[in-house]
Amino acid sequence: MVLRRTNMYKAIFRFLCTALLTGSLSVMNVPVHATNGALLELLKILRDKGGITQQEFELLRDTAQAETEKPAQTPAEPAPQVAAAVKPVPEITTKGKLEIKTDEHKFRVGGRAQHDFTLVGNDGDGNVGSSEQQFRRARIYLSGTAWEHWDWKFQFDLEDADDYSMSIEDAFIKYRGWEPASITVGQRKAPFSLSTLTSSKYITFIERSAPTDLFSSESIGMGGRAPGITLENKGKNHTLAGGFYLMRQRSDDTDTGVFIDSAGDTVVVESGTDSISERKLDDGWGVTGRATWLPVNRSGKQLVHTGVAFGYKHYPNKRVNRFRARPGVSEGDRIVDSDGSIAADNFWGMNLEAAGIWGPFAASAEYYYGDFDGTGATGATDMEGFYVQGSYFLTGESRRYKNG
């Protein structure tokens, strides 16, 4: 037992000597005199137990006292570091679009291509069906965000259904830094009708309903794209939007009737070959407003959407161009057709909308009503229409909903 204890003391002695000589104890955040005081007490115990001799004790004691008498060393000040001006690396994502993102800016490039084929058979009276195919849409867009509050978008369609020309769809700048409402200046969709405001990428069927198509046409212009200014306020369960727009009057080769051109002169169009230029008609102007509310909103899996919209358009030419709509297809015969222009000063329109999501099931319905303030012998002319549609995901997913 004595031999083992002596060997233990010798091992401790070697460790203390090594630590003292190499300065390992100095790395501890303890004053030197406090460390050496504890060391002297430990050396006394080793001496009394026979672990070290008196001579060895005195040698270690003198060494510890010499360390205590040394002046305290002030830690060297760390060298000043100059922050390198390194620009953040842009973040690039490709999910559904190409997006380049930095701390202050976003830039996106995207598009879509949709091709339609319509097969129409002959009826019992011998009328030949018109089966057709076309690129319904071939769009490319650029959009982005600058300095947190500024959004912009430029979108054009490479495939116009009528003359295979390129047309501008969206071209606007939006400011979101004003708390009461965002402000959009430029060409965009006027706030009217849930179906019209829903992108063609996310509508339930290939085409929108005939009433939706009719009210959003350029002739009536209640919900189509038009240049102007829009104010929007969005909350968790509500949206409010309104705007003022310039709405173009378009004439085509089938338009006939009496028109008042931009110079105030009367122009009589008797046949398609005498059709006046599209830009010879004065642009109309209009205002629209829309409000929506979610009486039920349970994490997007169960919700009920309601909305109402009103619109007014003034026709400076005292005439509304021919308006018509197809029954939910982009090609084929039109079931709604005014068969020429009508005389009118103004047009009033109203829209009621409702939609719901219950797990994998979704449904929506809208009602449209419009009234022309006629100036000719026909007097006032009104129109109305509605649609109801639904869908169900067999794989269990829920239709996504974006506020408003």
Keyword list:
404 residues; alpha+beta; Porin; 3 domains; 15-stranded antiparallel sheet; two-stranded antiparallel sheet; 19 strands; 41% strand; disordered N terminus
Describe the 3D structure:
The chain has 404 residues and is α+β, with helices and mostly antiparallel strands. It has 3 domains: 2-69, no CATH class; 86-177, no CATH class; 189-404, Porin (Beta Barrel). The protein has helices at 2-22, 32-48, 54-69, 194-197, 210-215, and strands spanning 91-93, 98-101, 105-118, 132-146, 150-157, 167-175, 182-189, 225-234, 238-247, 257-260, 266-269, 284-298, 302-314, 319-320, 324-325, 336-337, 342-358, 361-374, 381-392. It has a 15-stranded antiparallel sheet that branches. Strands 10-11 form a two-stranded antiparallel sheet. Strand 8 (225-234) and strand 9 form a beta hairpin. The longest helix is centred in the N-terminal third of the chain and has 21 residues, at 2-22.
Shape verdict: elongated
| CATH topology annotation of the largest domain | Porin
Helical residues, percent: 10-25%
Give me the count of strands.
Answer: 19
In the CATH hierarchy, what is the architecture of the largest domain at level 2? Beta Barrel
Give a concise summary.
With 404 residues, this protein is α+β, with helices and mostly antiparallel strands.
Annotate the secondary structure layout.
Elements: H1 2-22, H2 32-48, H3 54-69, E1 91-93, E2 98-101, E3 105-118, E4 132-146, E5 150-157, E6 167-175, E7 182-189, H4 194-197, H5 210-215, E8 225-234, E9 238-247, E10 257-260, E11 266-269, E12 284-298, E13 302-314, E14 319-320, E15 324-325, E16 336-337, E17 342-358, E18 361-374, E19 381-392
Antiparallel strand pairs: 1-2, 2-3, 3-4, 4-5, 5-6, 6-7, 7-8, 8-9, 9-12, 10-11, 12-13, 13-17, 14-17, 15-16, 17-18, 18-19
